[in-house]
Amino acid sequence: MKPQPIxxxxxxxxxxxxxxxxxxxxxxxxxxxxxxGQVKIKVVFDDKxxxxxxxxxxxxxxxxxxxxxxxxxxxGKTFGNEVSVLLIEDKEERTVEIAEDIQSIFNKNQExxxxxxxxxxxxxxEYIRWVEEAKKPETRENRKxxxxxxxxxxxKGI
Length: 158
Known about the structure:
The protein has helices spanning 29-33, 69-75, 100-107, 110-118, 121-132, 137-152; strands at residues 6-11, 13-14, 21-24, 39-45, 49-55, 64-67, 82-89. By secondary structure, it is an alpha+beta fold. The strands form 2 sheets. A 4-stranded antiparallel sheet has the order 1-7-4-5. A 3-stranded antiparallel sheet has the order 2-3-6. Helix 5 packs antiparallel against helix 6.
């Protein structure tokens, strides 16, 4: 059975004093998804910005969905603005694309690759994005080496 999209409007809320935003999910995840905890989802905001994330229960009465600064920028919206949300449960395997040069450093460091593969999707994505965001080739090289060391040191994310 294909999951049905859920559509609603929500106000972008600020998380305390931080530059962090979230929206409240106005439905029961237990009734809709048979889950009390985290629910992986795909979202389209305002019919234009796509996002893969999770509904989470964070000391809140209802589940919430974080809105990154990047998403808010793409939407041209901020705290207090209304956003339309089209949400569907994400059942796809979450994989991280690994560039050839990063894969080759993993090939030389099998132990780090095993540890990396055991990490959550989010932590793997953070590491790869951090390396790929390097503007200079030498920065990228340094970050690859540092990433391997951080993984071997048991650091879960950036």
